[in-house]
């Protein structure tokens, strides 16, 4: 049997750590890697919800929308848009130059502001 509360805490803390990594990377102009870390932050907090909801080990997927569905999160339209946008950075982070054109520091800040609200909402739901 798994310790659900311990795993939820682990994934929540991992999300916060990945968010700090994203801030550091983007500030240092490592924009695409920083956006990958934004994706990781959202993925980890949603996986905390999956564990909390299902009480079982995590699926080995990275799609934020699908993970939110598995967690049965009631995601409003705006947060769903953010998750869909940030999903692209998962692929870009793993297979750079295959999906997205590089984005500017200014564009990254816009994504970060949108993602921050979504991350805070997800953390508060835990």
- Poorly predicted runs are none
State the share of residues found in helices, binned by percent. Answer: over 70%
| Whole-number count of domains | 1
Rounded Rg: 14 Å
Distance between the termini: 21 Å
- Residue-averaged pLDDT, rounded? 92
CATH homologous superfamily label: Nucleotidyltransferases  domain 2
Shape: globular
The CATH topology is what? Four Helix Bundle (Hemerythrin (Met), subunit A)
User: What's the count of strands?
Assistant: 0
Major sheet, described briefly? none
Strand content: under 5%
Number of helices: 5
Along the chain, the helix and strand elements come as: HHHHH
Top CATH class: Mainly Alpha
Question: Structural class of the helices, strands and pairings?
Answer: mainly alpha
Identify the CATH architecture.
Up-down Bundle
